[in-house]
Write a structure and sequence with these properties.
single chain; about 425 residues; alpha/beta; 2 domains; 25 strands
Amino acid sequence: MFRKLRSFLADVSGNFALTVAVAAPAVVGMAGLAVDYTTLFKHRQSLQEVADSAALAATRELMIAGTGESQIQSVAESYAEAHLPDLSADGSLKVTTKVNKKTNKVTVDLAYTWHPMFAHFFDQSAAPIMSQAVAKLAGSGLTCVIGMMEPQILAKASIHLDHKAKIVADGCSVHSNSHDTFGLRVDSAASISAESVCSAGGYLKSFDAEISPAPLSDCPKIQDPLAKRKAPQVKDCRAEELVIDKNTTLKPGTYCGGITIKGNARVTLDDGIFVIKDGPLIVTDQANLTGKKASFFLTGEDSIFEFHAGTTISLSAMETGKLAGLLFYEDRNVPHSFNFNPFLPQLTPDDVRIHKISSNNARNLIGTLYLKNSVLLINAEAPVADASAYTALIVGRLWLQEGPTLHLNADYTETEVPVPDGLIGRAPVLVK
């Protein structure tokens, strides 16, 4: 018996198994902690990003709708659920909002309840995962682009930038009202830089495109800010199908059949309202069109404008009167359609109204272009509107083709041309 006991005590053949058995809980624990903290880091990052955007979206709703806390809560919940579907599916994501109407602040708290293996034993903040963001309405801001078009079968984006196109919106906001998934579209090497970028639906951005700051999606639609603005009176025709090929000063009035300015003509507009009825305003060749206190009212079929590549355009809207602040006002009753294929523009139907800025010297466009029934197509090779104190666009669809730069300033205090009511408002910013 003693010999067997000594033999057993001297035997080392099971040491490895014994060591593994003793060390196994620690190894499993370390692996579990690694998995826990990887998951924790990932969820914290996602939660914070969504909390930030949800706070901005909720604050924008406060600005636009002016409604109570239940509306703000609903907006924040909808945003979080849309952007964290995997976390919210089983009810483990809780969204809480707090509104301070005195300071116009909205606080959004996100709490995600999960069940880590070991992390909660070492870190009490591991479960639930908490994220908070605070946003407020700050200062005054200009909404310089509103794409009003509802999504069509093929043309879904109310703001569309093709290859290498740019929108530089210094100090103002860009907003797409299209509720489609691709309501805002930025193609390869194109970019948008603005105070804020918002889409009532979603957005499509190619891998090498840039949008700064990151766009908010599921934003509330902006109602037509000029819906109550009355159209001017259309009087008898001053001229019909007018063609100008020499230096001329034009007086306000109704120009039936449109106006064509060609050759090297230099046309100066007297102060007042120019009604373009049942025909286009075309500036072509190397012609020049200048107006310092002139506004256009477009009415009837074919009442579109085209500024061709070699032209020079310098226009400022009226400072007073019915069209004060409006550089172009399109009749809300013009026949129109948005049913076209943006990939085959050469096949666009005639009933789609398209205004074109191809001019390589259209740096001064001060005022608001109100073209809610039309496509505004910009394909100039030189910057457009960059020398303007401010330019605002309320259009059906803004389409930048093949590399133009649309530069929208917001220095509206530097001009006597007023900004129409509804375009100025406080902008939501993160404060925490």
